[in-house]
TrEMBL record:
Needed cofactors: Fe(2+)
One Gene Ontology CC term in the entry: cytoplasm
Lineage: Bacteria, Bacillati, Actinomycetota, Actinomycetes, Micromonosporales
EC annotation from Swiss-Prot or TrEMBL: 2.3.1.234
Gene3D superfamilies attached to this UniProt entry: 3.30.420.40
One Gene Ontology term from the biological process aspect of the record: tRNA threonylcarbamoyladenosine modification
Enzyme class: transferase
PANTHER family, sorted: TRNA N6-ADENOSINE THREONYLCARBAMOYLTRANSFERASE, TRNA N6-ADENOSINE THREONYLCARBAMOYLTRANSFERASE, MITOCHONDRIAL
Protein name: tRNA N6-adenosine threonylcarbamoyltransferase
Family according to the record: Belongs to the KAE1 / TsaD family.
Superkingdom field: Bacteria
Annotated organism of origin: Catellatospora methionotrophica
Pfam families: TsaD
Gene name in the database record: tsaD
Residues annotated to bind Fe cation: 115, 119, 312
């Protein structure tokens, strides 16, 4: 690690995690996190007002924890990055206002960045610089997209996205109907380990011959979620026990199969041999294994950050900020607004 590389602080508050990360170049120094997930669990989804209030309470203590962990002070920080969008408006506002306050007080440059691009950038903390071009599969609670990444600091090229539910949303909804807690990804991942992924054949959305013309790189998970619901209902109506582990494994297999198939197809049609997977669903153990196994057949290298870096965190924001600083990108103006619908093509504001 070179001390001449800029020290960047990143703040994340787009959903239910308050994250503060500190990086120097590609080196992660601190990744402090406070989650309000337990406060949302009984509602089966994130409650925006509850999330905003939790961010407000957690931001300063999380910042102090990150500074302690990294062994630095605010005066040492060279630049501040913060998630400007997309996400919950009120939740974003807390991080953006906090980051602006810090930038003003310390007279450091501030970068308002895109949460989704940050999910891609975080992988560099674990695996070093991302080869260009690369294909990125972004799978979170709110988004599922395939992107071509030529230069992360300049923008990404969307190739396709979900036309209905996001992959994480499908995990959350299926978990709910199986009686599992929110968020549903981790309990389904665990249950699936004891189930048979081939026990039930669930539909693979947008993979038919006709879909490959119009929706080659798009996803659809809403039909899959409905198919799982119907299957479980039929069992219950017949008075038969629901084999939860098999349902979880078969559902997970269907999601991963489609994600991996389309991601590899994107790599092959674009002649690209690096696939990076980011976002909360990238923490899924089966997705990572399946992608690595199938990609190897085509000489494609798969990069997936460790689970803690896949789900929302401050380190990912610091990582993207660090890229922007290194590329000499002009910082954001202090009056930038949080943008709950920030487009994927915009890396920063
Ligand atoms: O990226 P993220 O932390 O927040 C958003 O930006 O949305 O993603 C959260 C999503 C949730 O839907 C959660 O169920 C899913 O990621 N997730 C998983 C796993 N861990 C988290 N999905 C599948 N398998 C997992 N192990
Ligand atoms: Zn996210």
């Amino acid at each position: 690690m070179s001390t001449s590389e800029p020290l960047v602080l990143g703040i994340e508050s787009s959903c239910d995690e308050t994250g503060v990360g500190i990086v120097r170049g590609h080196t992660l120094l601190a990744d402090a996190l406070a989650s309000s997930v337990d406060e949302h669990a009984r509602f089966g989804g994130v409650v925006p007002e509850v999330a905003s209030r939790a961010h407000l309470q957690a931001l300063v203590p999380t910042l102090h924890r990150a500074l302690d962990e990294a062994g630095v002070t605010l005066a040492d920080i060279d630049a501040i990055a913060v998630t400007a969008g997309p996400g919950l408006a009120g939740a974003l506002l807390v991080g953006v206002a906090g980051a602006k306050g810090l930038a003003l007080a310390t007279e450091k440059p501030i970068y308002g960045v895109n949460h989704l691009a940050a999910h891609v950038a975080v992988d560099t903390l674990e695996h070093g610089p991302l080869p260009a071009p690369a294909i990125a599969l972004l799978v979170s609670g709110g988004h599922s997209s395939l992107l071509r990444v030529d230069d992360l600091t300049r923008g990404v090229t969307p190739l396709g996205a979900t036309i209905d539910d996001a992959a994480g949303e499908a995990f959350d909804k299926v978990a709910r109907l199986l009686g599992m807690p929110f968020p549903g990804g981790p309990p389904i991942d665990r249950a699936a380990r004891d189930g048979d992924p081939l026990a039930i054949t669930f539909p693979r959305g947008l993979t038919g011959p006709k879909d490959l013309v119009e929706h080659r790189f798009d996803f659809s998970f809403s039909g899959l979620k409905t198919a799982v619901a119907r299957w479980v209902e039929a069992r219950e109506r017949a008075g038969e026990p629901v084999p939860v582990n098999d349902v979880a494994a078969s559902f997970q297999h269907a999601v991963c199969d489609v994600l991996v198939r389309k991601a590899i197809d994107a790599c092959r049609t674009q002649g690209i041999d690096t696939l990076v997977i980011g976002g909360g669903v990238a923490a899924n153990s089966r997705l990572k294994a399946m992608a690595a196994e199938r990609a190897a057949e085509y000489g494609i290298t798969v990069r997936v950050p460790r689970p803690k870096l896949c789900t929302d965190n401050g380190a990912m924001v610091a990582a993207l900020g660090s890229h922007l600083v290194a590329a000499g990108i002009t910082p954001s103006k202090l009056d930038f607004a949080a943008d709950s619908a920030m487009p994927l093509t915009l890396v920063g504001v």
